[in-house]
Task: structure prediction
Amino acid sequence: MYAEQALAESEKRFRALVTASSDVVYRMSADFSELRQLEGHLFVAASRSPNRNWLEEYIHPDDRDLAQATIHDAIVRKGMLELECRVFLADGSVGWTHTRAVPMLDAAGEISEWIGMVTNVTARKQAEHALAYQRRMYEAILTNTPDLAYVWNLDHRFIYANEGLLRMWGRTWEEAIGKNCLELGYEPWHAAMHDREIDQVVATKQPVRGEVPFNGAFGRRHYDYLLVPVIGASGEVEAVAGTTRDVTERKQLEGSLIDADRRKDEFLATLAHELRNPLAPIRNAVHLLKSGDPTGDNLRAAREIIDRQVHHMVRLVDDLMDVSRITLGQVNLRNERVGLRRVIEDAVEAAAPAIEAGNHRLVVDVPAAALHLEGDATRLSQVFQNLLDNAAKYTPPGGTITLRAELRGDRIVVSVRDTGIGITPEAKARVFELFTRVHPNDSIKTSGLGIGLSLARKLIELHMGDIEVRSEGAGMGSEFIVTLPLAAAAPVPKLDLGNSRVAADTRRRVMVVDDNRDAAESLGMLLEMDHCIVSVAFDGLQALTAVDEFRPDIVLLDIGMPGMDGYELARRMRATPRGTELVLVALTGWGQAEDKQRAMDAGFNEHLTKPVDPDLLARVITFGHSAAA
Ligand code: ADP
Result:
């Protein structure tokens, strides 16, 4: 009876608990094998009669082991059980619950049953999962970004620093977090600057952006940073977050762009100057020629001036075009086996006027043995001529220029040394750069575009060689040293050109077509002097009408003409009865590879760039092509 009363009491208490609680309340047998009762806010299905299958019915399979282990532990301890696990909710879905159960002990101290309570924590768990997912996402970004990311609290102490920043500081999280800039070894001005910026962000709630150099674990680098407010729920700034990007490379690039731009401007000024220089004497000479009756001497002098200055201008323009062609990889070397002596003799001959003008002494020391190079003789001579010209140019009058060649192993080493103004150590690194002139304009009287050495280096590299400069400094003279591979193979027998020479004796019939009358007529006169029979036409139609009657061997055609242009005229000439026998030569101002290709496609045999080198023209007229004999 007493026991029954006690049970009724217990039942009453249980009921009260069920009513008061917003949770589910249950009773379990002492060993948890039987669920005796489960009632309350039934997010899980109620169970009023004893249920021995509760584990399968309520608990998610993946959490059953955990549940059993926790229960076992609580039974052994006779203490509170606490478990968070997935369960099947009343609607059949899977949810999360948190349960607590306390053991009821009898007089002997044994567990008589358990009273437990289950809270539905599905919503909290889902929020936790979403949060954890978000955190993993942010962590993945922040840990892997090359940028530095960090957060200061309102005391200006770091409360967050990402991996990148810790690495840049060379510190661990523990060493860095909680410190301010000064304590982390920032220079005082730098720390003070950030203090001001943090205050500004807090006061204005506006971002602050800046750039600053910093000496970190990766050396001195340049950083661009953005500080933004972290706004709390109340609308107040609760922290200041920052991201910083290493912009060292971009800065360097900007620097080199600015530098390149400056050099381009300088170059244009120099180019204008260089092109104007020869124009003045040409204009004077023309004036002389126009003046009433020039005497024989004047006439010759004027002619020589024009010849010399035009030659100079042509060389300038050729150099310019060479540079662009080499830069675009469009230079084809006419490689052959060539004697070192020939290359050097040609260079010395070409540089002789400059050396004589400077009143310099030239010493040439080339081995007597026949040494051969594999390469383009004209281009190689051009390089050495350039070095000799520079030596003459950058040496005060009366200096000594020494050209010495020797064999070292399987390399030929040629050095050009002068006793001139020399090159400072800083400038040495730059002399081979395009458009670089390392002596300021007014320090010397000489001129140049800063192309020669850049061109020389590119040409030498195309020949698998290298070029370097030595100088003890300003006023100590300079030495340029070219190293080239020695040609390996035995000499090739010389081609017999007998037939071509015979052909050269016959008089050629040449038609010149150019809408520029002066250009057409002067070229015609030149060809007549070269024993050609010449006919001149000033437009396409005139040329087409004349071609049958005149029966030219060769037609020299300007490309840019009004009405019918050179390409069209070439196609039409090819279509005439004798068209296939004609040698068609394009004369244009455009010398790029694609211009040549276009001319070839239109049916031209040759493409020559204006102003045409008279020797080259003579070769084309004689042999029908420009290839060197
Ligand atoms: P340029 O002579 O047309 O200016 P280069 O490319 O040939 O161009 O040379 C570049 C610069 O190198 C020159 O402007 C000059 O300052 C320097 N330089 C070249 N050769 C010598 C030399 N032999 N002695 C001293 N300086 C030289």
Remarks:
- Residues 390-391, 394, 418, 420-423, 431, 436-439, 448-454, 478 surround adenosine-5'-diphosphate (CB under 6 Å).
- Residues 491-505 have pLDDT under 50 and may be disordered.
- Residues 145-246 form a domain with the Beta-Lactamase fold (CATH 3.30.450.20).
